[in-house]
Design goal:
- There is one protein chain.
- By secondary structure, this protein is of the alpha/beta class.
- The chain folds into two domains: 1-135 and 207-220, Rossmann fold (3-Layer(aba) Sandwich), CATH 3.40.50; 141-203, Winged helix-like DNA-binding domain superfamily/Winged helix DNA-binding domain (Arc Repressor Mutant, subunit A, Orthogonal Bundle).
- The protein has helices at 17-26, 86-94, 107-118, 148-158, 163-170, 174-188, 193-202, 224-229, and strands at residues 8-13, 32-38, 49-53, 76-81, 99-102, 123-125, 211-213.
- A seven-stranded mixed beta sheet has the order 6-5-4-3-1-2-7, sandwiched between helices.
- Helix 3 links the parallel strand 5 (99-102) and strand 6.
- Helix 4 packs across helix 6 (174-188) and helix 4 packs across helix 7.
- The two termini are 38 Å apart.
Length: 239
């Protein structure tokens, strides 16, 4: 098989199992082998790209990209986020990211972007200007009507961040964060921060630090020519 026809080998990094499952499902029909999924830990499998989903995470200067490619395999890190603040993108790219992709992009567009990155391009694709629209994938609280941004704000609240801390991470004003909080509280039926945290704990907003690896895909299969190289050649007939 031609190297270009090989499925792209991907690790998906995030601390929330439902988010990872949503991204993996979203990409399931594309030209991708999802080799490893799990929490924000160094990737141990032989992959081409580490897709860092920013749900509930620090972005920009807060991401130490080397943490995800310590195995020395040369994987590229691509940020996958709804937060498209230009200065945030700049920080991530300056920190070594090979690409920055919006969550409003479709599966085929994402795969095309990843393939371009594998060819050596630096790819930034922001998609729609409105980044709070419901995209593909999944997130905690979606079943009760929380938008991606409302869910992320609630996740950060559950992790003990103040409104000011969240606003600084999201590059929006504290008043905007308060608006997200009010709408999220209304949807989940709570009236206080304490009630919101308790609801979050009971509804999938506690980070999951586990890792899942496809044992059949963890090690890259040899290219056909490499496999043939290990086969002893037949001896020439003796005269």
């Amino acid at each position: 098989m031609d190297q270009r026809e090989r499925p792209l080998r991907l690790a998906i990094v995030d601390d929330y199992a439902v988010v990872i499952a949503g991204v993996a499902s979203f990409l399931a029909d594309e030209r991708i082998d999802v080799v490893e999924t799990g929490a924000s830990l160094p990737v141990v499998s032989d992959v081409d790209i580490v897709l860092f989903d920013t749900f509930g995470q620090v972005t920009g200067n807060g991401i130490d990209l080397e943490d995800y490619i310590r195995n020395g395999g040369g994987a590229k890190v691509v940020i996958y986020s709804w937060n498209l603040e230009p200065s945030l993108i700049q920080q991530a790219m300056a920190g070594g990211a090979a690409g920055y992709l919006s969550k409003v992009l479709t599966g085929p567009v994402i795969v095309e972007a990843l393939e371009r990155i594998m060819k050596g391009e630096t790819v930034i694709m922001t998609g729609d200007d409105e980044t709070s629209v419901d995209g593909a994938g999944d997130w905690p609280g979606r079943s009760v009507g929380l938008s991606p941004r409302e869910a992320e704000v609630l996740a950060l609240i559950a992790n003990g961040l103040s409104n000011q801390d969240i606003a600084e991470r999201a590059f929006v004003s504290p008043n905007t964060i308060k608006s997200y909080i009010r709408s999220a509280y209304r949807k989940i039926g709570v009236e206080s921060r304490t009630q919101a945290v308790l609801w979050a704990v009971d509804n999938g907003f506690v980070p999951n630090r586990s890792r899942n690896i496809d044992r059949d895909l963890r090690t890259r299969p040899p290219a056909p020519e490499q496999a043939l190289a290990g086969v002893p050649k037949a001896s020439a007939p003796q005269p």
